[in-house]
Amino acid sequence: MPISFKVNGKEHTLDVEEDMPLLWALRDELGLTGTKFGCGIAACGACTVQVDGTAMRSCSVPVSYADGSEITTIEGLADPDADTGGLSPLQQAWIERQVPQCGYCQSGMLMAVDALLKENPQPTDEEVGAAITNICRCGSYPRVLAAIRDVTRA
Amino acid sequence: MAFDLKKPTRRQMLVGGGLAGGALLVGVSMSGPSRRERENAIAAEGGEKFVTTWLKISPDNVTTVYVPHSDMGQGPITALAMMAADEMDADWNLVRAEQAPAEPEFANESLGLFITKGQTAPDMLAGAAETLWYNVAKFMSMQITGGSMAVRYTGQHGMRIAGAAAKEMLVKAAAARWNCAASDCEVRDSVVYLKGKNRSATFGELAVEAAEYSPSATPTFKTPDQYRIVGRPTKRFDVPGKVDGSGTYGIDARPEGMLYAALRQSPVFGGKLKRYDASEILKRRGVKKVVELPVGVAVIADNFWRAKQAAAALDIEFDTGGNDAISSASIFEGHEKALQGDSTEDVEKGDAEGALKNAAKVVEAAYRVPYLAHATMEPMNCTVWVHDGKAEVWVGTQDPLGTRARVADMTGVDYDNVKVHPLLLGGGFGRRIPYRSGFSEFPSEIDYASLIAKEVDAPVKLVYTREDDMQHDAYRIAVANTMKAGLDEDGNPVAWLNRYVYKDEPAEAPHIPYAVENQSIRYVDNPTPVPRGPWRSVAHTQHTFFNESFMDELAHEAGKDPYEFRMALLKDKPRHRAVLQLAAEKAGLGKPLPEGRVHGIAVQQSFSTIVAEVLEVSLDEDNRPRVHKVTCAVDCGRVINPDTAEAQVQSAVIYGLTAALYGQITIEGGAVTQGNFPDYRMVTLAETPVIETHFIDSGEALGGLGEPGTPPVAPALANAVFKLTGKRIRELPMSIHDLSPASGKFAQAAD
After folding, report:
1. How high is the ipTM of this complex?
2. Which one of 3.90.320.10, 1.10.150.120, 3.40.50.2300, 3.40.50.1100 gives the CATH number of domain A89-152?
3. Alpha carbons A34 and A23: distance in angstroms, whole number
4. Measured between alpha carbons, how far is B591 from B575 in angstroms, rounded to an integer?
5. Domain check: are B295 and B400 in the same one?
6. CA-based nearest distance B260→chain A, Å
7. Which residue has the higher pLDDT, B69 or B27?
8. pLDDT tens, B228-287?
9. Do B304 and A140 touch (CB under 8 A)?
10. Nearest CB to B647 within list A46, A78, A101
11. Cα dist from B543 to B239, B327, B372, B575, whole Å
């Protein structure tokens, strides 16, 4: 049964197994490799995308769940109208603070933080800690927090 | 200009300056760092090893720096470009940098030929995005990014020379143009000026004429007070591509027509494929074929998920080869036994046994640490395409040339016909070095990808699941030691005895900086079939835990403050004293802390950098240690890029903290017990302490920064936990210990 959804504003129809995780549909079927594979069991957050604005770990979301929904991936986080060279203020803060090291987890980190700030524009440190459980082996956490503070205090 | 590449007479030398498509090209080859093992391997072939650096100045006045190191986020590509650009007096806004890909046609010899015999430059050199890779196949192991060596070796001995030599050539060209002396010229921001006159020319305008001159192997360097780029916080070149999803990691490779491979391999180390029946899974959608490997079966499909699901469903049996009797318990039993047997000298100073006999007090302890996985965020992967007698490889690796050699060996394709496309690395920490100390017979994902590619008529991307990655790593070795020390009547240590398992790199890791007159440090070996490999800071991880925890024990037994105790024994080590003192001052050591919190300290020199850390720790309501703040003092000689330097220390601290609190890979039935992050827990944002980093600009020889922040974390934490609970932690991780008050009192009573 074909599954249809919008990714970053663009309509796609896929003829894939209903239980294929959204992650692999995005990466291997649509070629959107910005969303990363980390653990396959929703434990690390590297694959975080937004489904109808909600942060979800796409490695554990069946593609059929996303049927009819609007998905945003890291490739769609930029805001072409922003006065920061097309990047969203969050991405710009990430560059200013030089947050990424190896950078592999940062797609998921950014998608999770972006979703959090839409829901709670002024989170406390505790709220950030509770919501952002994405794993970063490079230990970018202090700068993640600093970049979030740059945006929320702006 | 002729350069004899076979018999280098000096430690550094310019291998060439020349023209390439109207661009000036300057390269430096140099002797590499002295990591004993590789040095020996290379000496055996009668050669010398090289790491090379290259600069290119284009007509548009852009200087491009090609860095022969992998950037895993530790920032060498930017830092090394800063070092070259500063010596050149280049305008940083006109500097670009990228990793030099491994290109056989630009091997050392071919480049040398083109310069010395006036052959036409290969077309590729003209394109800004293309480059050359200086490469001598037999020296390939020196292209490794590891040992925290990029800045202190390639940067210090390669980049600076290339930059300074290029500047001299540009100045000579300008002087010839203006018919003046070189001393009449000055350089600012990629422009050469005639002093006092209204004449100038950009690097780009001078590049063609500059190429007429031979680069000096001994150019004049700037003095540190003249640095204008080095020492300033500088944004990395690789960051923008890491915030918009455009950065391409190994796992993101998508050559045309690519298929995906998932493995089903023997969970038992050293196990072999016994039998399998693929008839069922071959009926599945998208499954193309299976490939037999010595250790199991690879399933090839048109989508990784399909390959992985089919591999999991495969009917398969393995032959364990008897290795299923091995467990963490049996390995540690073997260690204990080995520690009681004959040992080999590491350090013998004075008469440690004699001094121990005459000591007023003898302190004994035994320590151990478990295996550790690297758990890079990007699981291991490698894409290989074998076609028409050639092999192409797409991978993120800490060693592009070593990977190339490995793929050549495994596919049977001639080395010259293997092309490696180095892509971004989603973490390395030692894991992405295709080379396993002492256990080269253990195959890696690169080997498997190569073997698979031979059997498939398309590019194939092998991806490890997280479970594959965690259960088939090259681990930080599980080791143990026994320690004894003698204290005199004033509590001063007079004897230090350490028997440890496995002599690993770096060789000095087990040594102590403290002035103990009689020392006997010796090692034993107890080989196991568990693959091992370098893990961030390598042997310093275990030895710093052993030594700095035991120092704390001695201070306690001597009735002295652990900080004062160390300072007194470091009287001949001013740099160590300075970092300890700075860390103590900044942390407020000895000053009152919030209720329930204590400080723990440790110091270690590794990779020529000295780091002292003070951890502020309490126990939470579940009696688990909670680290609130880590104050680091670092002497790495001089900081090149303060922004990445701080990030590296933070990173190393968090990496070490994860290991100290939770890190443990256990072996049962010859296989790894842990499979995924829930079993191998990581520190997350919520647990991240405040990390303060203070650098000492000592002006001493440059030290590394990717690793040295890691070693002191575990002992500093354990020392704090002792203060909190009275319980001495002699085995990691912290999570295996009951730290409830009752257990602490019990332990103290037993002490």
Report:
1. 0.98
2. 1.10.150.120
3. 10
4. 24
5. yes
6. 9
7. B69
8. 999 999 999 999 999 999 999 999 999 999 999 999 999 999 899 999 999 999 999 999
9. no
10. A101
11. 34, 23, 15, 20
